[in-house]
Amino acid sequence: MQKQGNIRKMHTDLDDQVKYQLPIGNEKIDLNVLIGKELKLTYLGQINCIHCGKKTKTSFSQGYCYTCFTTLPQTDPSILRPELDLSYLGIARDMEWAKENSLKPHYVYLAYSGNLKVGVTRESQVPTRWIDQGASKAIKLAKTPNRHIAGVIEVALKEHFSDKTNWRAMLKLVNSNDIDLAEEKVKAKELLHPELQQYISDEDELTDIVYPMEMIPDKVVSFSFEKEKEFTGILKGIKGQYLIFDEGKVINIRKHSGYLIELKAE
């Protein structure tokens, strides 16, 4: 198999084992069937903005040109810091976009992906967000009517829970049986101001996520197309948005959204 085109973040589907597809050009490549096979990735020296398609020397915010990065609602600072979202006051880069994305129900969640973390996602992004972060399990903590309130809850819990994923620990995670998310949810609720406790979700179902992995790497070494324009290795697993190769070499596909590459599979 040989394919060429600009790549995007991998599409996922939660099943007994997460199913992955890599968008490359106008096609979607089933990656699960390629595990155990030798892949050759070649960067062809071109990056196109994933929104407007314009060539860009530098990729901003995982795939955008500078103009789109500074003007689009999906690259607004409130995407990374939900508490900054002011669309509930009628203030946004694009209010129509905000009505469909920020002014919709959001979840604050607890997840375990090598470390216990708190996060925020739109209701429509469950469980995609958890998979993209490589979480082995997750639980809904609170449900809010908009992004801003979810962000306020997240900030209130940051002193007690991390809001970042340790990607190295995530990729080397063997199991998470010693973490009780239901118990952690009870602790989190008690840490919140009564005004915020009203948003605590009564959905206590635990979501377990299994990734297609032939090998858990003892150590991980990341590579990027800027440093390695050509890479060949045996695909041993996929987790989060990472491809994991033999000898522990890994690449973050989402970080390289918009890159023009050639993929060969033996």
How would you explain this protein's 3D organization?
The protein is of the alpha+beta class. It has a domain at 78-208. It is 20% helix and 30% strand. The chain contains 8 helices and 14 strands. The chain has helices spanning 66-71, 77-80, 95-101, 128-132, 147-157, 167-172, 181-191, 194-197, and strands at residues 2-6, 11-13, 19-24, 27-30, 38-47, 106-112, 116-122, 137-144, 207-208, 221-222, 230-239, 242-245, 249-252, 259-265. The strands form 3 sheets. The chain has a 7-stranded mixed β-sheet with strand order 1-14-5-11-12-13-10, with no helix packed on it. The longest helix is centred in the middle third of the chain and has 11 residues, at 147-157. The chain is globular. The model has no long low-confidence stretch (mean pLDDT 96).
Uncertain runs: none
Shape field: globular
Largest sheet: 7 strands, mixed
Number of beta strands: 14
Tell me the Rg in angstroms: 19 Å
What keywords describe this structure?
globular, four-stranded antiparallel sheet, 266 residues, single chain
Give me a quick take on this structure.
This protein has 266 residues and is α+β, with helices and mostly antiparallel strands. It has helices spanning 66-71, 77-80, 95-101, 128-132, 147-157, 167-172, 181-191, 194-197; strands spanning 2-6, 11-13, 19-24, 27-30, 38-47, 106-112, 116-122, 137-144, 207-208, 221-222, 230-239, 242-245, 249-252, 259-265.
Q: Which secondary structure elements does this structure contain, and how are they paired or packed?
A:
Layout: E1 2-6, E2 11-13, E3 19-24, E4 27-30, E5 38-47, H1 66-71, H2 77-80, H3 95-101, E6 106-112, E7 116-122, H4 128-132, E8 137-144, H5 147-157, H6 167-172, H7 181-191, H8 194-197, E9 207-208, E10 221-222, E11 230-239, E12 242-245, E13 249-252, E14 259-265
Parallel strand pairs: 10-13
Antiparallel strand pairs: 1-14, 2-3, 3-4, 5-11, 5-14, 6-7, 6-8, 8-9, 11-12, 12-13
